[in-house]
Amino acid sequence: MASARQVNIAIIGAGGVGKCFLSQLESLAARRQNQKLVLTYIATSKKAVYSDAYSPIALDSVVSTLSSSSQAPLALPKLVDYLAASGTKTVLVDNTSSQDIADAYPSFLRRGISIVTPNKKAFSGSYKLWQDIFAAKEEGGSLLYHEASCGAGLPVISTIKDLVETGDEVTKIEGVFSGTMSFLFNSFAPTSGSGGGKWSAEVAKAKELGYTEPDPRDDLNGLDVARKLTILARYAGLEVESPTSFPVQSLIPKQLESVASGDEFLARLPEFDAEMEEVKAEAQKEGKVVRFVGSIDVASKQVKVGLEKFDLSHPIAALKGSDNIISFYTKRYGSNPLIIQGAGAGGDVTAMGVTSDLLKVLAQL
Question: Would residue 280 show up in a list of annotated catalytic residues for this protein?
Answer without folding.
Answer: no
